[in-house]
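Hello support,

Our group uses your service weekly, and this is the first time we've seen a run hang past the timeout. The protein is Phage major capsid protein. I'm not sure whether the cause is the sequence or the server load. Input pasted verbatim:
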Amino acid sequence: MSVVLELKKRRAELSAAVNQLAALEATGAALNAEQVASIDAMQKEFDDIGAKIARAEAAERMTAATAQPVDNPQGPRAGAAPIHATPAAPTVKGGGMARMAAALIEAQGNYREAANIADERGYGQEVAAALNTGSPSAGGVLVPANMAREVIELLRPKTVVRKLGARSLPLNNGNLTIPRLRGGATVGYIGSDSDAPVTGVKFDDLKLSSKKMSALVPISNDLLSNAGISPNVDQLIVDDLTSSVGAREDKAFLRDDGSGNLPKGLRHWALANSVFTAPELNAIDAAALQVLENFLNKLILSLEGADANMVSPGWVMSPRTFRFLEGLKDMKGSKVYPELANRTLKGYPVGVTTQIPNNLGKDGDESELYFADFGDCFIGEDQSLVIDFSKEATYKDTDGQMVSAFQRDQTLIRVIAKHDFGPRHQESIAVGVGIKWGK
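Update from on-call engineer: The timeout came from a worker crash unrelated to the input. Re-ran successfully.
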């Protein structure tokens, strides 16, 4: 690790220690003389390190500016690898937002002070400039569009709806209208003295309006204290942020019903005549396999029979349904759908997500299966994100238990995104319901 990084790491440790003592005093506890002296000493060391970092960075810039290539009068040795300068530390896509969050948390929400912290710690001029020129919104601090786009792009491999080809379009003032053709033009052949057929095109609109999504992400304070120092730490923070946002997105775009402030997902966009009840497969024999094959074909034919464009068709299913189909064997012991090993089914890609539950139906043991042309589905989204934080808030864990971020030495980061979802043509969606396979 370079001298500059070592100094910055030490300064981060000092800052965390001072903040811990300050937080203790804020709770009403009195600090003893030794603790007060310790704070003074750490503050002095923090300032001294800042001066050392400035000198060390200046020396590095001077060295880089005056560096000269070393010439070999005899030319390069045959087979020798070329000599390159030491590469810069790898940057993490979306890391700007992670470092921005870390600076804001250390500055306790003071975005001007956060800009100074970002500048002093070498978080990057882009992060410091964004904090210095930004302004807090009602729900937190606005992340600049360029940083937000990086994070939004990272959602694609983590959300099945985006990954399968749903198209993202920007919302204009929170709204987006996409025209769609409902009835085709009248077309026919005519004789030399006949009138041309009258064109009777019918149009409709897909209207998307901004829906606010809030995702809560608990992150260890130990990680946050090292943000900007190690790209691995930045990557962990970005992964946590995008995983939480992506999971909630998939639930919204697949199964939310559009009531209140919720988007409407595929399940509720599907037309009634495009929803099919799955057959029960009590015994696996040749007849049952044919029934299953007919059912899967029925979902595909629902789109093909409606002349769907079939630009990016694909399947979405729960892990239970996927494992049943992937392990299904015929009477000879051969896999019925071996292509599922490559995440395709009948030639179309497969997305697997836990956001399709297995506890539906009156007995709580059913799931669903979706087949849709995702190239005909649109995500209208605001190209910015808002972040806020709390060190005292509580949240529910995966078991539904209330957790205190303060007790666990965590910071709860809230990410707010605005978007909506819908298909251009509802005929581009088919849904299988009542799936009990693999239970």
